[in-house]
Structures are given as C-alpha cells and as structure tokens.
Amino acid sequence: MVSVIAIQRGTADPNRYVLMSGDIDSRVTDVLNATDDSPGANDNASGVAGTLEAARVLTRHRFPATIVYAALAGEEQGLFGGQILAAHAQREGWRLQAVLNNDMIGNSAGINGVVDNTTARVFAEGTRMTETAQEATQRRFTGGEVDSPSRNLARYIERIGEQYVPNLDVMMVYRLDRFGRGGHHRPFNDLGYPGVRIMETNEHYDRQHQDLRNEDGRHYGDTLAYVDFDYAAKLTGLNAVALAGMAWAPPPPADVQIEGAVSPDTTLRWTRPTDAQAPELAGYRIYWRLTTEPQWTHSRWVGDVTEFTLENVVIDNYFFGVAAVADNGAESPVVFPGAAGSFGGY
To answer: Which fold has domain 4-248?
Structure first.
C-alpha cells in the first residue's frame, strides 16, 4: 500500500498544513479485481491530475504555511491511504487546518441527463467525530451543529471559489459524503481534522466501478473519452485558490470565546499567534449571520486586537465567528466560538 506525498514547506509556520488529495487506485465492478483493465479516467485520475497541476502552479510561490499534495492508495478497498496519512499527521503533531479531497472532478454529464460544467459540490460533515460528551452538552446550549471546522472550510471554499474562479457556482452539501458512501477525507474527519470532498455535481454511474463493455448501445467503464478537461481544470482552480488563500493567510484564530447572554451586545475574544509564526498578520474580521443562513452575511474589520464587542447585536439572533487577515488581504476560514468550531491551537 504505497501513497505518494509531496510537501511544500511553509516559510514562517511550517507545522500548519493544508492538504489536497486524489486517489491513485482504480477498480472495475469487483474492487478486489486487480487484473482487468480499469482506466479510472475520472475516478480518480481526474483528482490526481488536479493535485499534480495545483502543485505545478503553487510551487512557483512561497507561503507561510505548508501545503501537502497527496496521491492516496487503497481508497476503493477501504480508505487505507487516507487512514495511513491521517494517522501519520496525528503522530507527527501536524496542525492540519484543511483537507481537500478530490474524488471525481472531471465529469460534467450526469446519468440524470443533466450536462453542467458550471457547478461543483463540496461535502462537509457537521458535528466532528471526536466531540466529547461535555462538548456536546455545551453545543446544545450555544449552537455549532452547522459550524464545525469542516463546514466553515466549505464556506471558505465556496466564497473564495466564486470570487476567483469564473463561471463556477459552488454548492455546499451538509453531509459527510454522498448518501451512504465515503471518500478519503473521512479518515481525517475521524481524527477530528477539518476535511471536505470536492467533486462534480452530476455523477454518471455507468462510468464508475464498471467492467469495460458495451451493452444495448450503452457504454460502461471509466474511460478518457468521457472526461471534460475544461471542467476538471475549473475544479482544479477551485482547489488552487483555496489552498493558496489559506496558506497565505495567518492561522485561524485559536481559543475563540463568546459572551452576551441577557445583553444587547456580543463580545468575542481569541488568542493571537506570535509575530514569528504569523509575520503577515494584519488583524481580524468578525463575521455573523442569521442562524438560518448558510453563508456569512455580515462582517466587521476590527484590527489587530484579541477582543471586540459588537454593540446592539444580540447574541441570541445570530451565529458569530472570527477570521484572521494577512497584509495582502488573504483570510483564514471563519472560526465559530468554542470547541464545536475550533480549528485547533497554535
């Protein structure tokens, strides 16, 4: 079981990681069949090609944080490559801020008859797997079910993708993965790391895990003829701008706390990294939204402080978060207060 990992070391905060992955294994109908031809053009050569292309583009630049490019093995047989790398990250103490798992990013024609090269899906789980009973009790009273770090990573990808990738609408899906199915971000989620699956919006099941054949005029098999290269390039760009944005940004705020019960005002507090760890830090931006809104709708720049009070913004009516901002404008994902939203410490 051999995966291929490339690491682009950060210049200021090398133990903070963002990761992009694809899967190098490909199988036909029987996932244990290692002999029959299984081209796997979309599932998942598209994800590996995207990871290689992102590496080609981003390694021309230097970033404060470390970027990992991973081609993971054994996904079809049991997510083994992701399990091995996630366990390695945990043993080595990586501050793993984001895992972008790319699994099928090259098909724009769905089995439902829809042809669409303008949308992409980002799957993100809610409550993190490692939540303790005490943290669950706290979340019951303060919220956070839809503000796990994975969900706020998805919001970040949607916002930055629609800002920088032309003609792309990013759809957040509030689910770990497709219904009853799995992918290589899950082993990282299992250990509490923020991770999402980025993929096409409309799948074609005749071209996934199929023995190569033609029956009754229908083609079965994952062959190159059915890959939309322009679409794959667009989703690769989505990954690249997200990785660059997070790696250029300061680390997400740590120890974010909030208070404001029975008060007209809401106060947020957080800790600041050292200047050596975040030399590019310009300050912080507070975000808030109605509890029924999927994306952050209001924000306020508050500068290089570690506490701020929003006057006459009632805590009961909104969800809140804090993002770190660099001198060049790059922002971290928004961090929801408390353990439910924490991206980890410094």
So the answer is: Aminopeptidase (3.40.630)
